[in-house]
Each structure stands twice: as structure tokens, then as C-alpha cells.
């Protein structure tokens, strides 16, 4: 877990440097080696690491727009993920998805920029596991800002009535862009919502990877043993703005300071030391994580950019007229197929 968390944190520190290249002095979102938005998950690491520690490659994970720590913990190919973020041809989706739309079928991972969008596909994966009579499970991660989306609530209900092996993990960082949690809901403890759907709920109140690990062991174990879905809410903290370039004028300074103080990585490191893990072992883990990140970033930056002609490949099943000459458009065929 520590290695995953340090990898995720360092990965994002390096992405941040690469992202800012060429974007200043005036913030030009389209400039530089990583164009577009970038949502960093620094402060969320305990959630991805603690939950995914219980998962296998055949288990499905769906993640939201802040996905890097979860993708890393799920074992997504770091080089191809990085190439995707840099918009390169060898990226997971040939550079067309970017950082919010990472998809790695080898480890059954997907994420989306549409909040709560991962819940129905996770229910689908759970239903598939049930029908195929396997013991794989599905986990849908979402932010606390997405908990009133119909997709989430309907998914909770469907998973519950069908008794599906799905775990819903709400990462509560107290903010949905500039909207504080208390303006979103009067239900302070998200685990209470589970009662309304007849499934178990738990909340981990601290940025504590070991506590997340223990709560997730129960939730994932329950799903794997075919005892049905559950809801887990994890308190995390957003150490950065909502996205890179967010001036956070809406955020009280004390809130940001508090987020910086509650560092789950430092906490886990202290736990490891208290359990007799020596400095050398911790340094080795950290060095290995940093090397892996450097390798992935260097590799990605060397990868070719897609040819402009490839812009419409893999985008439309049936391309509109004039986009490519390979297939007739829906309009031309009348949409029969
Ligand atoms: C369906 C939908 N509505 C609105 C948005 C715009 N949007 C992007 S992120 C976000 C807030 C997300 O907050 P939260 O779920 O708490 O995740 P966090 O960013 O805090 O990790 C919103 C409203 C969206 N992406 N999808
Ligand atoms: Mg949030």
C-alpha cells in the first residue's frame, strides 16, 4: 500500500510539473505537453490503495475524474496510462481519452469525467460475475459531490435487490469543485444512506490507509463471498485545487492547511516504523516508486503523437458522412444497423 501511495503522489507531482510547462504566465489550458484539464488526487491515496489491495485483475474498478491513485493501485499499465495522459498514440486509448478517460481492459479499469457514471457499469460487471458464476467483484469509486446523482442511487438499489458483488466507495474530500459538503447534503455520515437501500454501510473517518484496508476487506470479502453489495465512505482530503489552475478563492485557508496536515502517506510511514520497518526498507520502496514514475514519464514523452488523419478512428461505429470513406453514415443507411 505504501509503495502504491508513494507512486501515486510522486506521479502526480511529476505530472504537475509537466502540465505547467508552457501554460504560464497566463494560464493557457491548451498549451504544453498535457493539454486540457488535470484533476490531481493528492490526499486521496489511502482510499485507492486500501481498497484495491483486496482486488485481483479480474475484478472491475470504475473511477471518477480524479483517477490516478486508483488506477495505480489497480495495476493499470503506468507507461501506457502516462502516454494516454500525454495524448500519445501508444496510450491506453491511443491518446484520445486523456487523464479522465483511462481504460485498461487487462485489469478491468475504466474512469470517466461524468460524475457517478461509473456506478451503472460496475453494477453491470457485478451482474456479469453473478451470471457467469465467478467470484469476481466490482468496485465503483465516486466523490461525495456525486452522491445525489440518479446513476448512483439507482445503482445502489439495483445492486441491492439483485444481491450483486459490488462495493461503492465514496471518497469524501468535503468539496465538489467550490461547493462544500454541508451545502450538498444534510446526511453527514454517508454510510447512513446505505440503510435506505437495505445494504451495509461503513465510514472510515480518517485519512488512514490501514483503516480503509480493514473496512474494504470486509466489504470486498462480503461481495466475493456472494453476500451482496455494500457502501463504504472514506474521508480523504483534497490537497490541491479542484483542477490544476484552480485559484481556490472559495476555500478558507484553514481548510487547505488542515488538508495538508492530514497526510495519509506520512501516517502510514509512521505506522510502518512503529511496526519495526527500518529506514532502509522505506527508502528502497520510495526509490523504486520514483524510478518507476520517471521511467513511465520518459517513455511516454518519447512516444509518437497520433496522426491527424486518425482523429476519427475508433470514435464512431458508423462514421458520419464525409468523416471517413470507409463506411456509409447512419443517415445514408437509414440507421438500420
Ligand atoms: C453529471 C455531471 N455533472 C456535473 C459535472 C461537473 N463536475 C465535474 S467534477 C464535479 C464535482 C465533483 O465533486 P466530487 O464528486 O466530490 O469529486 P471530487 O472532485 O471532490 O473528487 C462536477 C460537478 C460532471 N462532470 N458530470
Ligand atoms: Mg469531493
UniProtKB/TrEMBL annotation:
This is Pyruvate dehydrogenase (Acetyl-transferring). GO terms for biological process: pyruvate decarboxylation to acetyl-CoA. It comes from Natronorubrum tibetense GA33. Its cofactor is thiamine diphosphate. Keywords: Oxidoreductase, Pyruvate, Thiamine pyrophosphate. Residues 297-337 are annotated as: Disordered. GO terms for molecular function: pyruvate dehydrogenase (acetyl-transferring) activity. Residues 297-308 have a biased composition (Basic and acidic residues). PANTHER family: PYRUVATE DEHYDROGENASE E1 COMPONENT SUBUNIT ALPHA, PYRUVATE DEHYDROGENASE E1 COMPONENT, ALPHA SUBUNIT BACTERIAL AND ORGANELLAR. Residues 31-309 form the Dehydrogenase E1 component domain.
Amino acid at each position: 500500500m505504501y509503495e502504491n501511495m508513494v507512486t501515486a503522489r510522486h506521479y502526480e507531482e511529476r505530472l504537475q510539473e509537466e502540465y505547467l510547462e508552457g501554460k504560464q504566465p497566463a494560464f493557457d489550458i491548451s498549451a504544453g505537453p498535457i493539454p486540457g484539464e488535470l484533476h490531481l488526487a493528492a490526499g486521496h491515496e489511502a482510499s485507492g490503495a486500501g481498497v484495491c489491495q483486496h482486488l485481483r485483475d479480474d475484478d472491475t474498478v470504475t473511477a471518477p475524474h480524479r483517477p490516478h491513485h486508483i488506477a495505480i493501485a489497480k495495476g493499470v499499465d503506468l507507461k501506457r496510462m502516462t502516454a494516454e495522459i500525454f495524448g500519445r498514440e501508444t496510450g491506453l486509448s491511443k491518446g484520445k481519452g486523456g487523464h479522465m478517460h483511462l481504460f485498461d481492459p487487462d485489469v478491468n479499469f475504466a474512469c470517466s469525467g461524468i460524475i457517478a457514471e461509473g456506478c451503472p457499469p460496475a453494477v453491470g460487471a457485478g451482474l456479469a460475475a453473478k451470471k457467469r458464476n465467478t467470484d469476481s467483484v466490482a468496485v465503483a469509486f465516486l466523490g461525495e459531490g456525486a452522491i445525489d446523482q440518479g446513476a448512483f442511487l439507482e445503482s445502489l438499489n439495483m445492486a441491492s435487490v439483485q444481491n450483486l458483488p459490488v462495493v461503492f466507495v465514496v471518497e469524501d474530500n468535503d468539496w465538489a469543485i467550490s461547493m462544500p459538503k454541508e451545502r450538498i447534503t444534510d446526511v453527514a455520515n454517508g454510510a447512513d444512506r446505505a440503510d435506505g437501500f437495505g445494504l451495509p454501510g461503513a465510514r472510515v473517518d480518517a485519512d488512514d490507509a490501514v483503516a480503509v484496508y480493514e473496512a474494504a476487506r470486509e466489504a470486498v470479502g462480503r461481495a466475493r463471498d456472494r453476500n451482496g453489495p455494500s457502501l463504504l465512505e472514506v474521508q480523504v482530503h483534497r490537497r490541491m485545487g479542484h483542477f490544476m489552475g484552480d485559484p481556490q478563492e472559495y476555500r478558507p485557508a484553514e481548510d487547505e492547511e488542515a488538508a495538508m496536515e492530514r497526510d495519509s502517506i506520512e501516517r502510514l510511514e509512521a505506522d510502518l516504523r512503529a511496526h519495526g520497518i527500518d529506514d532502509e526498507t522505506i527508502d528502497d520502496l520510495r526509490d523504486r516508486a520514483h524510478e518507476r514514475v520517471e521511467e513511465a514519464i520518459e517513455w511516454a514523452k518519447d512516444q509518437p503523437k497520433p496522426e491527424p488523419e486518425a482523429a476519427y478512428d475508433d470514435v464512431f461505429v458508423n462514421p458520419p458522412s464525409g468523416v471517413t470513406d470507409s463506411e456509409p453514415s447512419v443517415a445514408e443507411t437509414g440507421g438500420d444497423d
